[in-house]
Design goal:
alpha/beta; TIM Barrel; 5-stranded parallel beta sheet; 3-stranded parallel beta sheet; globular; binds zinc ion
């Protein structure tokens, strides 16, 4: 799909725009958003990938940042970025769940090689995951530390996956912070104290579909965190917001997350869209 096609789709084919059938949604659809974390190269989109991107752009989600997983995801990610150079931006890194004893050195060497070959939107996703596998904690820390150094050297934002490991991730970030580190704690989950530690370190919180889940404790935390530290994300195809739970997630659902954040913060959705978009632009900018 060409840039012009995407523009035309966005301008003239936005579902709900100027529609009398769904007036309640019109305001939500008029804004510009950034999905700061989406695995849109996933095989889950193999049958309708281009239509899915067009739906996102129609919904106002004009930029989608693609975090890498490991050696196996690079090719599909680059192909998607090449198809939508104005909308999809690739990152480079090694996901903590792909840090395995037999392969992680080779994986990190490939990341390092890729980082040397071009400019990437960010370093990630990286971090620590103690939900799936605690036995690899030592090598997860090692891989994360290496990526922290690359983020500093290259001046790129660090995109952190922290699952049941906020303490471990915060300690490594704190240790590495010399004024050059910035980034996002993607799919933030944690206490107000942890959120404040993250923002004090110069990091933003990635807010996604979990905010819409009835049992979420995020609303009480986010009420206390200034909007300037929040960015939106889907983590598509995972973690779809209400009412799409149990199905595939996609970037066109970002307005649903923005709408929930607007309720939580008691702020107009226009301000949520404008501020989170500006935050993401600032985070991923070249300096
Ligand atoms: Zn992810």
């Amino acid at each position: 799909m060409t840039e012009l096609n995407v523009f035309l789709l966005r301008t003239f084919a936005a579902p709900g725009r100027n529609s009398h059938k769904n007036p309640g949604n019109t305001d939500v659809l008029m804004h510009t958003y950034i999905d700061t974390h989406a695995h849109l190269y996933s095989a889950k989109f193999s049958t309708d990938r281009h239509e899915m991107i067009a739906r996102a752009v129609s919904a106002g989600v004009v930029k989608m940042y693609l975090p890498n997983i490991d050696a196996e995801s690079v090719q599909a990610m680059l192909e998607l970025e090449a198809s939508f150079p104005d909308n999809c931006m690739a990152m480079m890194g090694l996901h903590p769940c792909s840090v395995q004893p037999d392969t992680y050195e080779k994986e990190l060497a490939l990341v390092e090689k890729n980082l040397g070959e071009r400019v990437w939107a960010g370093i990630g996703e990286t971090g620590i995951d103690l939900y799936w596998d605690k036995s690899t904690l030592d090598i997860q820390k090692l891989a994360f530390s290496r990526q922290i150094e690359w983020a500093k050297d290259l001046g790129r934002p660090l995109v952190i996956h922290s699952r049941e490991s906020n303490r471990e991730c915060l300690d490594l970030v704190k240790n590495g912070q010399d004024g050059r580190l910035r980034g996002i704690f993607h799919c933030f989950s944690g206490t107000l104290e942890e959120a404040r530690e993250m923002t004090d370190l110069g990091f933003m919180l990635g807010i996604g579909g979990t905010l819409t889940y009835p049992k979420s404790e995020l609303p009480s935390v986010l009420r206390e965190i200034p909007l300037d530290y929040l960015v939106l994300e889907t983590d598509a195809p995972y973690l779809p917001p209400v009412p799409h739970r149990g199905k595939r997630n996609e970037s066109s659902y970002i307005p649903l997350i923005a709408s929930m954040l607007s309720e939580v913060k008691v702020l107009p959705i226009s301000l949520i869209a404008k501020t989170t978009t500006a935050n993401a632009e600032r985070m991923f900018s070249a300096t």
